[in-house]
Structure formats: structure tokens, C-alpha cells
Write a structure and sequence with these properties.
The complex is a heterodimer of chains A (about 180) and B (about 425). Chain A has 4 helices and 4 strands, in the order H-E-H-E-H-E-H-E. By secondary structure, chain A is an alpha+beta fold. Chain A has a single domain, classed as 60s Ribosomal Protein L30, Chain: A (2-Layer Sandwich), CATH 3.30.1330. A 4-stranded mixed sheet of chain A has the order 1-4-2-3. In chain A, strand 2, helix 3 and strand 3 form a beta-alpha-beta unit. In chain A, helix 2 crosses helix 3. Chain B is built from 5 helices and 30 strands. In chain B, helix 2 packs across helix 3 and helix 3 crosses helix 5. Classes of the chains: A alpha+beta (about 180), B mainly beta (about 425).
Chain lengths: ~180, ~425
């Protein structure tokens, strides 16, 4: 009963504050998770399932990271490096934060899904990271503050081979250093 | 005297037959033979006299090596104890269908070293094909067994054996990544590096002393060169952006690498001593996975300049880019055999990633595997086998295959996920 109560509270929280859920901490076993488009409000859908408790790590959202993790992750379509329009707003927010902290370095880390070779995926992830870096540069962020790096398929956010997992792994993460 | 000895040994033959049977059974579990029309030398490897639980089973290692090569078929036969000085009753092996026999002994010397001796017989002609002895430290006993296999392989096929070589690979176990150096059969693995972050793309230096690899330990891909025997590491490429895909020139003086320091994944040449990289080619596309041709004149690489990843080659001067693969829309990870005849690579067919082999002169291609997630092929230094990573029963595993794809073996040296194999050079 108590755990059910906790679940309800947590899920209510998730629905209410969808954009603050760190997607990379969503449990792997969440088979019914929707494909995350990144649009605010949809993210909460990957919260609590079947009586389990979804761990929410608020420690990730501290101000040291500039912005909550949901606003620091850009998702990409299959085999694509094009930033989808729905991510422009969060990229603009990041640009603002970075510009307000001229001494702060920021890494943009590109990632791919698990299909294909490690080195080629490293190059694909690099393209995604560079796409985000160039979007930030267009908004006036000095390139000296930015570094695009790639993890290829080495650091999936979500384990699994289905499209639900793959779509969460094709991403670039903005990390404040 | 000889007859007396043989009579004496025959009494124990039943026990030896049982031993032979179990050895053959365990070896067959590891080696998968498919297809017909194989020409294999039938060979018997007798249990080495004196091999006990305290020493590696030399005959078992020799037999597994020979079977994995695809050139040999193990034949069990009933004979008494044999060593390198005994005169075997070759008719026993002839009747069993063997063309060759290896016999030998293992003993421990006064200084603690292991003495491995053997003799090879041509069973059909009744000829002694010679033998050797190796006195090695206990840790090198398996190496001695691989040397025996090398001798047998060369005597009977005419090609140099590559069993006494080393393979580097990476394991992932939970959050822990480890780079290993193992015997060519995957056994006897020794950890060269452990890290909480990924390690990929190990590449042996041509002298077999160093490994170049990509480590993510500083939260980005950087290239290290690592002296295997001392453990000393040098950070060789840590430029802005990603640093990856190291490949050695045949003279060991230069590394080809992929750097994104000027934007995009681009090919550079770098002195193995470090220093300022020199751009090999410039493109607005992905160029990566460089490998030198054995003559050092060309570099094969992967590029998406045609819209999808294909394998190309370019002169080391950066002149004369030529496309090499023309079938399929995803061709990556080239490995060139030392004899310059073959290119192994991974091609995607209908969503499956499969090991392919191209005859470089003719351009003919064949599929070597029936698995669906193959990666990272690497040739044995004698150009006769390829090691590659794949998925077997949900785990990442390493396999070797012959160039006709008919004989495959899973390397069983480690549990869990094994990946990123790179086959080292001949060791002198």
C-alpha cells in the first residue's frame, strides 16, 4: 500500500514536471516506454509502469549542469544529424546559459544506437555533436567554449535493441564542465 | 627391447583410447566444420608423455590449434604411451586413417622450467619428419605447445603457422572494461589495462611490443600507445574533439588516425613518437578506419563520401582516392592480409552485419559468416585465418574462420562479452 502510494506520488510528480526527468536514468525494463520526441509533457510517459518504481535522480539536475538533463539532450532520427525543430528552444536556453558563463567549458557528446561498427558509429556521433555545436555557435556561443566529442555506441542511455531503445540512444548531450 | 616396451604399453591401451576419445570430443565442441569438399590432413596427436594435471595438456592444445586452422582433422587411435624418442607402430595410425602423428613429452627441469619435446611422423611414408625441444618457464608452457603446432603446420602445409602469436581484445563486464593480451586461441589472457570507461580499436605495433588503442577514460576518445611488457602508456593523440581509429604503418614509425580537431572525422598521419599530425586527405564527409596495405604504399579507409559508408583506398601521399567496395550500402572495418591478397570487412545485408572477404586483385567477394552482428575482423599474420567479433547466444564473442568460411571456432578464453579482437604479428 505504501509503495503504491509512493508510485502515485512519483508518477504525479513525473507528469507534473515531465521536462525535469533525466531520460538517461529511465529504467531499461520499461518495455512500454514511448518513443521520446523530446517534446515537454511526453517525457513523463516513461515514468512508473506495472507497480515498479522509476528511479528519479534529481542530483543530475543541479545548477552545475546549467540546465536540467531533459533540456541538455537532443534526440536524432535514424541515420540523421539534423536537429529537429522541437529542440531549438532548449538549444537556445543552453546558449543563453553558456553565454552567461564565459569561463565555463561545455562538451557536446554525440551518441548513436547500437547498430553497426564501433568506429563508424564514433564518426556518426561526432557529426551529431558537431551539429549541436554549430547550432550553439549560430546563437553566438564562442567556439572556444565548446568541444564536440563522440562516444559512438559505447555509452547507450538505454539498453536494448528495439526502436524504443535506439531512439533514446541516438542523441547528443550537452555537458557543462 | 622395443617390442617388449610396446607389449607393455598395449596393456594400458584401453585407458588411452578413453583419454583420446574425450580429448577429441572436447575439441570438436569448439570447432565447427561446415560445408563439403574440405581437404584436411588427418592427424593423430598422441598424449604427450608426462603431461599431467599440473602441466598444460600440450597435446590437447596442439590438436585444437591444428583443427582450428581448418587444414587438419584429428584422428583418434589406440596406441601405448609415446614420446619423441619412441618408435611408434605406425600401422596402428594408418589403420585408423591418420596421415601424420605427433608424439612428445613434457617434463619439469631442475630449475623449474618445463621441457617440451616432440616428433612428427609421416604415417603414410613411415618417415620421421623431425622434432624440436623447448625449455620454457611454466607460464610459457602453452606457448611451447603453440610452437609445436606451428612446426607441424609448416611441415605439412608448406605455410608458416601462426599459433604462437598473440591476440588483443577487450572485455566488458558490468561497468568494467579490460584490454587483454591472449594466446592466438584466446587462452592464457593477461590484462593489459582495466578502466571504468570504454576501450576500443586496439592495434598491435608491427614489432608486437606495443598496442595503440582508443580510451574514453578522460570522457572523450583519445589515443594511447601502450608498451605491453612494461605497462608504460603514452598519450599520443588528445586533440580537441575525438581521436580514434589508430593504425600502424608497416615500419612502425607512423600511425594513421581519425581526428575531428578541425571539424568532421578526418584522416591524419602521426609520428609514433608523437608530435604534430599531418592531414592525409581533406573531405567534407566522414573518413575513418584507416589501415595500411602491407607494402605501406596505400591506406584503406571507410568514407561516406558517396552517400553511404564504403571502403576506399588512397596513396600514403594522400593522392589517388579509389573506391574499393561496390556492392551493398554499408561496408566498413577493412583488414588487409599480410600477403596483400585479401581484404576482410563487414558488410550489411538486409539489416545483418556479416563478415565478408574480397580477393583484392579480382574484386570477387564472398560471405564468410552466417551470424548477424559481426564486427572488427583481423587477419592472422600468416593470412590464413580471420578473427572477428560477433554475437553468440546473446553474448559478444570472438570467432576465427578459415578464408573459405568452412571451419570456424569460438575462442573460449573468457566469459562474458568479448569484443574488438586484433591479431598480433609473428613473434621471433
Amino acid at each position: 500500500m505504501r509503495s503504491l502510494f509512493v508510485s502515485i506520488v512519483v508518477s504525479a510528480f513525473l507528469v507534473g514536471c515531465g521536462s525535469t526527468v533525466p531520460l538517461n536514468d529511465v529504467p531499461v525494463s520499461d518495455a512500454t516506454a514511448k518513443v521520446v520526441s523530446g517534446a515537454d509533457g511526453e517525457n513523463g510517459a516513461s515514468g512508473v509502469k506495472g507497480g515498479g518504481v522509476a528511479p528519479v535522480d534529481l542530483g543530475q539536475n543541479d545548477l552545475q549542469q546549467g540546465l536540467p538533463s531533459a533540456k541538455r539532450i537532443v534526440y536524432f532520427d535514424f541515420d540523421s544529424f539534423v536537429i529537429r525543430p522541437e529542440f531549438q528552444a532548449s538549444i537556445a536556453e543552453n546558449a543563453k546559459v553558456i553565454l552567461s558563463r564565459p569561463n565555463r567549458k561545455v562538451a557536446v557528446e554525440g551518441h548513436t544506437d547500437e547498430t553497426g561498427g564501433r568506429e563508424y558509429n564514433l564518426a556518426l556521433g561526432q557529426k551529431r555533436a558537431e551539429a549541436v555545436v554549430s547550432a550553439l555557435t549560430v546563437l553566438g556561443v564562442p567556439s572556444s567554449q565548446l568541444e564536440a566529442v563522440s562516444f559512438g555506441k559505447e555509452k547507450p542511455a538505454v539498453l536494448g535493441s528495439d526502436e524504443a531503445a535506439n531512439s533514446k540512444n541516438r542523441r547528443a548531450e550537452i555537458r557543462y564542465q | 627391447m622395443i617390442r617388449l616396451l610396446l607389449n607393455h604399453f598395449r596393456l594400458g591401451s584401453l585407458a588411452f583410447w578413453a583419454l583420446f576419445f574425450s580429448l577429441t570430443a572436447s575439441a570438436q565442441f569448439r570447432v565447427e566444420v561446415s560445408g563439403v569438399g574440405l581437404t584436411q590432413v588427418p592427424i593423430s596427436v598422441a598424449p604427450f608423455k608426462g603431461q599431467t594435471a599440473s602441466t598444460p595438456k600440450i597435446s590437447e592444445i596442439v590438436q585444437a590449434d591444428l583443427e582450428r586452422s581448418g587444414q587438419f582433422r584429428a584422428v583418434a587411435a589406440t596406441h601405448g604411451v609415446l614420446d619423441e624418442v619412441s618408435l611408434p607402430d605406425l600401422s596402428v595410425f594408418r589403420r585408423a586413417g591418420s596421415d601424420a602423428l605427433v608424439s612428445g613429452s613434457v617434463s619439469t627441469l631442475a630449475d623449474g622450467r618445463i621441457d617440451v619435446r616432440f616428433r612428427l611422423w609421416d604415417v603414410v611414408k613411415g618417415q620421421d619428419l623431425g622434432g624440436q625441444s623447448f625449455a620454457v618457464t611454466a607460464t610459457d608452457a602453452r606457448l611451447a605447445a603453440h610452437r609445436v603446432a606451428d612446426y607441424v603446420y609448416e611441415k605439412l602445409t608448406g605455410d608458416r603457422g601462426a599459433f604462437s602469436t598473440r591476440i588483443a581484445y577487450v572485455t566488458k563486464s558490468g561497468p568494467r572494461y579490460q584490454l587483454w593480451v591472449a594466446d592466438s586461441d584466446g587462452e592464457n589472457a593477461q590484462s593489459a589495462l582495466a578502466s571504468p570507461e570504454p576501450i576500443i580499436s586496439p592495434a598491435w605495433s608491427p614489432d608486437g611490443n606495443q598496442l595503440a588503442y582508443v580510451s574514453f577514460e578522460s570522457r572523450k576518445p583519445v589515443i594511447y600507445v601502450h608498451n605491453v611488457s612494461t605497462g608504460k602508456r603514452r598519450l599520443i593523440a588528445n586533440f580537441k574533439g575525438s581521436n580514434s581509429a589508430p593504425a600502424w604503418s608497416p615500419d612502425g614509425k607512423t600511425l594513421a588516425v581519425t581526428l575531428s580537431r578541425d571539424g568532421g572525422s578526418q584522416l591524419f598521419l602521426l609520428s609514433a613518437a608523437g608530435g604534430e599530425p599531418r592531414r592525409l586527405i581533406q573531405s567534407s564527409n566522414i573518413d575513418t578506419e584507416p589501415v595500411f596495405s602491407p607494402d605501406g604504399r596505400n591506406i584503406y579507409f571507410v568514407s561516406d563520401r558517396g552517400g553511404a559508408p564504403q571502403i576506399y583506398k588512397v596513396g600514403v601521399t594522400g593522392q589517388g582516392v579509389e573506391r574499393v567496395t561496390f556492392t551493398g550500402t554499408y561496408n566498413i572495418s577493412p583488414s588487409i592480409s599480410q600477403d596483400g591478397r585479401w581484404m576482410a570487412y563487414i558488410s550489411r545485408i538486409g539489416g545483418a552485419f556479416k563478415l565478408h572477404l574480397m580477393d583484392i586483385a579480382g574484386g570477387n567477394v564472398r560471405v564468410l559468416s552466417d551470424t548477424v552482428a559481426d564486427e572488427s575482423p583481423s587477419f592472422a599474420p600468416n593470412s590464413k585465418l580471420v578473427v572477428y567479433a560477433t554475437q553468440v547466444q546473446g553474448h559478444e564473442a570472438l570467432m576465427t574462420t578459415t578464408l573459405d568460411g568452412k571451419v570456424k571456432a569460438r575462442l573460449t578464453g573468457q566469459n562474458g562479452d568479448i569484443r574488438e579482437p586484433n591479431w598480433g604479428p609473428f613473434l621471433n
